[in-house]
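pasting input
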Amino acid sequence: MPRPETRMVTLSIDGREVTAPENVMLVDGAKYGDVEIPVFCYEPKLGAPVGACRMCLVEIEGIPKLQTACSTPVKDGMVVHTQTARVHAAQEAIVEFLLINHPLDCPVCDKGGECPLQDISFGWGGGRSRFIEPKRHFQKPLALSPLIAIDRERCILCYRCVRFSQEIAEDYQLVLQERAAHTFVATFDGHPYVAPFSGNIIELCPVGALTSQPYRFRARPWDIEGSGSVCTLCPAQCNVNFTVRDERVLRVLARDHAEVDDGWLCDKGRFAYQAVHVDERITRPMIRDGGELRPVSWERALEHAASALGRAQARVGAIAGGETTNEEGFLLQRLVREVLLSNDVDSRAGGSLSLDLHRALGAPAAQATVSDLEFADAVLVLDCEPVDDAPILDLRIRKGVRRRRVELAVATSRPSSLDPNARLRVRFAPGCAEAFLLALEAAIGTAAGEPRREEVARLAQAAGADAGAVHALADLLTTSGDDVVVLWGERVTGGERGEYAGRALLNVAGRLGLRDRDGAGLLCVPAGTNGRGLAEAGVLPNAGPGLSEVEEAGRDAAGIAAAVAAGDLVALYLLHTDPLRDLPNRGAWEAALDRASLVVAHAAFLTEGIRAHADVVFPAESYAEKEGTVTHPDGRLQRLRPAIGHQGETRAEWQVLAELARRLGRDLGVHTGPMATDQLVAAVPFYAGITLDELGGKGLRWPAREAASAFPAPATAGPFELEPPAPAPAPNGRLRLGTFRSIWAAPEVEVSPALKFLHPRQRAELSPADAQRLKLFPGDRVTVGSDGHSVSAIVALRDGAPEGTVFLETAIPEDSASLLEGPLVEVRKA
Amino acid sequence: MPWNPGDDVISVQRGPRPGGAGGAYRAFGETLRGLKTTFARVLEGPITIQYPEEKVPVYPRFRGRHRLHRFEDTGLEKCVGCSLCAAACPADCIRVVAAENTPELRVSAGERYAAVYEINLSRCIFCGYCEVACPFDAITMGNDYEMSDYNRSDLIFTKEMLLAEPFDRAPLRAEGE
Amino acid sequence: MSTPTRPPTTRPTPYREMEESIDLSAQLQHVPAVGGAEQELLTLNMGPHHPATHGVLRLLVTLEGEVVRDLKPIIGYVHTGIEKTAEDKSYWKVIPIVERMDYLAYYFNAMAFCGATETLLGLEVPKRAQYLRVLHLELNRIMSHLVWLGTSALDLGAISMFWYCFRERETILDIFEMSSGQRMHTRYIQVGGVIDDIPAGFEEKVRAFCAVMPERIEQYGDLLNKNEIVLRRLRNVCPLDEATLLELGVTGPLLRAAGNPWDLRKAMPYSSYEDFDFQIPVGTVGDNYDRYVVRLAEMKESVKIVEQALDGLPEGPFITEDRKVALPPRHELATSMEALIHHFKLVTEGFRVPPGEVYYPIEGPRGELGCFVRSDGSSKPARVHMRDPSFVNLQATAPMVRDAYIADLIATLAMLDPILGGIDR
């Protein structure tokens, strides 16, 4: 579905000639002529207007009664008046009505000073009260959830929060109860409103009815400063605005970017800022001394790390975590490759892919953008759960389905929260994306008339999927339109067969004609926030900056673990990552960390791997302190800007990396953050010419720039000849193991006082049929085990989960699924 | 002349030319006249006030050192920490950090209270806008005008200092109000 | 192809060089011998800390013997950046800031700024507020002249005058304290009117002052008018003619002393000055003596105006009833939501002023005090500039004292009445 073309119409507002796009509402159209019409309930992001507040009444010639400007589209030749006596009388009356039951709370209300009700009363209201009767009263203040306080007396019933819950987040929890003056906002069942996106209603509320609990009474608008940056807690990289008072981040607000976040934030992005200012945070360098990590001076920590790294030379493996910026990743690989003369540097959890595949999957021609999800004809969500992996994309897909009638297909192993919106749901066995993609490719061939029905059946069975559903999916993707976007999770290309799954994905993309087509393409959800940027900055074992060839490929993450355990490598350099938490195969990593003679880590929190194994810990900057760039999965370079100074003794990571290199005898030539950016831009040919100024506040998609032609072309972008993979293991009484990383599985959530209650415990997601067979009930404690390892979990049932599979969480401190080795596990009642 | 002043203008009288015989007369005569004026003033008595033994009384509207107030009946603080005074202050000398009242710790009558309330009197210009801005009459400008100290840091008045009764009340005049 | 214009490379203003570049060579040349002996010009630095400069004014005086051949005032020692500060404050908060420019004419500063803002807003000020403003403005004028008279007489060696003048000034400051709560920098005048009505007992106190004051002015005259020392120090000393003064832009008592009856209260009445009956004292020669008598006579006229303002004080509101500009009455804050919101918004953000610019001149104690305000439509002024009469009048120093004795320079400076707070701003 191509983006609709806009035709301009001309109308007259207050005697001025105004040219505005056709079909926009009068409120928005008036802005083209610098005319402001006050609104409370109208918010274009919430979809169709409801006309609930009546604040936007205007006079339109030819219509006897006043009309709501928020729900009247502009038309050619329309004559509108917003300054007549009738309109003023109506506006003053509406404000007076709204204020009748409004409590005199401004001095104690958190919204005071940034409150649309105040602004509109001051700007358009009459200024005098006639109402002397007692006001309506509700019990207040109440907690709508641990994150949101509700004050029902202040509510003006604009429906914004309810519309958000019903039509944007689609969690269907908020409703209006009772009638008339007694109407109030509540959850349908009276339970707290806990949902991944609940915090957005705080920002939507035009009065002080819904306020943030963590920000409660913290500051006033005149006490604070706003500072725009980017949230690096997940790959969605939403644009945020930090509210800073006295060098402390007190709040995070959305910074509307239509191409990234559409103005929404998830609750993790909105509230995990608290992790910047908690006691758990490491703010001083530490050295292991007598088995314990003890704070030391920077000088000692740097000297210790430098001398130990110097001794290890060439036998150092480095891993960069997802929150690493492009500059830090670039400097890390320079440190490892140029100074330590090692090739073992990686940033991917799932294992190494060939350089050619990286180039083929990252090619600008096959790249879809975030907004393509909204305007596509069909979207295929492939083996990822947007709400966990990149939450804001979940809202974008819902918007596309609801407003633009995008045909959504979900092909995952684990049931997705998007299932109810999808036209089609296909399940396959965990880790069998390769077989599934081959089956899909064959099915698309079948739809085009090739006789491959049997092949489809065979491959679908190997993938543990239903052949009929695969055919239906192929039909959907080929018939709904040309613009197809495949949103695929990085776990598709994870594991030993990741290379082949990636090729299978390229085959499907080739079949669907996604390459070289605007509005269609592939969009990867990487496992780490800056997965794409790190790959492009050269933090891959087999690729240098700009996905260039390296003379000698190094070991990938799993290879590094094995080599350290075997004694081939002696030192580990961990940049923003705790392998026990973030990487699969915990057993191998525990062995490696035990054996390593030196572990240098940049960490913000003492997670289990760091606490037990790190020898030198450098305090890591939080994202509110960082300076640098990150690359969005769709290729948008975005700029991080420091909102606050470094907390405690924290130093910038680029500075630490450059200092280490200097102590090891090599000057990297980086004395400021922007110098690192310059080096990066010079080293990556397809970033050529990008400056920080050019990135500005909105970032820049490098695939849309001219320099993108310098992207190294893959030797072949398919189609590939592929062997059918081994079929998914038959459960035989056991269950297949699937893993997922919850949106809440992050150390930032663990330490944030407000979000702590959401930090996940291990749970075993089962299909009701399996639960019945195993005689398990929701809430039962079970042990899930394989090969002598086991974890404890609570049973949760999920409709739509494929039979014969159990899903467990990774990236949590205790009982993480990364302890288990699949593919089959046993579930026993504990 | 762009405007005609009409008869609104009076010419002032110029003094005589100095020197000469007149000058000799004036050196004595006018000086004596001046002395007469001066001595006549002696009869009016002194108008000086023996400060600091004697304090200058102030009018009710006088804007002296700030004071924070409590409700007389409940003892709760009137200030709810709304920060309007900080917003109104042209010298940016007020700092308020609010916090929430809990059933265990009830400080003010509203939902919130001022956990930190500081006025930097070395920056204050005594314009009284804080008093005007306060919707609860929680802060008023008191009568005290003796605020000098040896240390700048001692001039940052905390909430406790502002809530406390002043040691020496400045006398208040009866008239006015 | 036009090349993009690059901003000129900025470098710190070379104050040191600028100061050193002040060229005195012309004055240092050898002048023809007087009395047979060859004399050299002497450059003397006076100030900035000099009691006779009435503030931190620095004068570079070129002397030939005792005779002043040239003089260069150097200013900026009390530059406070008030005009710039005003750009960062809402209109309401600018008032106490601009009051502190000319610290002897705080009501005038506030009046000029509020008048300019009201003009931009198109706001009608209630009659009572206008009368209250006139009342306080004229008291302020007397107060300012009293400080001038006391310190000037002190410069001439008359210490009693200083005590007498400050005694009357004290009464006026008491009156100010009674109505507004402060003796100086009262911020009594607000946009739309005055901040509060006058309290009970105020009228009696002002009337008592008005009853005494004319007699006091007579006594000052008795002491000084025909005093031989005063006559010798002032009469025909350092005169400057009307034409030169006009060329230099000098206004106020200095211009009127030279015979030009230019008074903005009459010429362009503001704040209901047209309702009052008073006269403009003018001098004839424009020497120091005329400057002295004109000011003395002005005090008498001011007392007349104050009395008339009290007599004719109309009933009515003391500040505009436009709720979008003036704070709502305090008693409404506890009951009216509208009042609370308007109070909150006015206090925190302030009212917005339509875009435009205005120059609003009033007759200050030292001459034309004009306030220029440019608004960009926001709640903070985009530019505030004060045409301070002291600044302009200071230019007349050099022409006045050229070829006079250095002792007369002190007297002339006293009669010029410059206020450095207003000059440097």
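fyi The mean pLDDT of chain A is 91.
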